[in-house]
Design a protein that fits this description.
Elements: E1 2-7, E2 12-17, E3 20-25, H1 26-31, E4 58-65, E5 68-74, E6 78-83, H2 84-89, E7 120-122, H3 123-128, H4 130-143, E8 145-149, H5 158-162, E9 168-169, E10 177-179, E11 195-198, E12 210-218, E13 225-229, H6 230-240, H7 242-250, E14 253-257, E15 265-269, E16 272-274, E17 280-283, H8 298-316, E18 321-324, E19 331-335, E20 339-343, E21 352-359, H9 361-374
Parallel strand pairs: 7-8
Antiparallel strand pairs: 1-2, 2-3, 4-5, 5-6, 8-19, 9-21, 10-21, 11-20, 12-19, 12-21, 13-18, 13-20, 14-15, 16-17
Helix pairs in contact: 4-9, 6-7, 6-8, 7-8
Length: 380
Amino acid sequence: MTDVSISDAGKHLTLTIGGNSHRFHAIWLRDNAADAETRSPGNGQRLIALRDIDPYTRITKAKVSSGSLLVKFSPEDKTVAYDLGWLLDNSYDRPSMTEPGWLDPGKETWTAQLNDQVPSADFEAVRRGASVKRGWLASLARYGFAKLTGGPVENLALMQVVDLFGYVRETNYGRHFEVRTEVNPTNLAFTGLGLQAHTDNPYRDPVPTVQVLYCLESSAAGGENMVVDGFAAALRLKGENPDWFRVLSRYCARFEYAGEKGVVLRSRKPMIELAPDGELIAVRFNNRSAAAINDVPFEEMELYYQAYRRLGEIIDDPAMEVTFRLEPGECFIVDNTRVLHARKAYSGTGTRWLQGCYADKDGLLSTLAALQADLPEAAE
């Protein structure tokens, strides 16, 4: 049963479908009209600004017909059709999220239990098959990381991986960087030391949102890669002590990198970042790049350090980590705003050569959305 009624002298209407009611304001409906005079048929972009819509726009008539809601507006005397499915997908008349730390339902947290089902796909299958690529990118978006196997063992093969979904983000390290032992390294990542799980480059604003690490040689003992779900760690911290979660999300940490001539990178961001409505959107954790924290009030600093220490302990907990060894031609991709990565120490004998680069999620999510639009029957 579908019904529609107009209320408040035309300021809003109520659409009832299957017993569920959804209210929409007249100004919102007019602003989101999809007719050819309001939006470009070619690209969907708006052709008018809000200033072009009368602030006293009202609904004078509304009815449901053939899967659409027909709405007539005054003072324009204009009738616009809205797809019912689109209206339900974009309904804003729902309970608001009030609990800090809520997650987008498209994201799934994980712990070491994911070791038995690491999201992975074959490079050639992803390159040649749109449905395989769609599934692989959907897993990457859901879990925040994924592997590729069976790739070419050749210099700069990682660029072919980025080409699958987006564009390289160049930094002071160049379009890519080498990860192998160096004499007098500019960064601890270029030694055989083990590294605590961390997000990369927290000293940048904006931070690179995707990282690719591609293996070309792997005969040295050790050096296994580990990943930790920063969202799962943050929510575990919150479950143990909400005040710890509060201080790490309320106050900014500071990060800095000045490891090479002519480069001084600094940022000021919280370790746990929330959107204004409380959604958990990012985690930054990198002890090597942490600068002096001076944005926390004296009265909260002791609590802040308790929370900082405990978050590190949770991240270090083997129960939180997924571990795998990369072989030549394999790589993994991480959402650098969510998933921390680490490396176990490796020996000085044999060889270990990885290449890395950065990209951004806008390209990845755009590619995924386009594939889901082209393959709606397979969309999650």
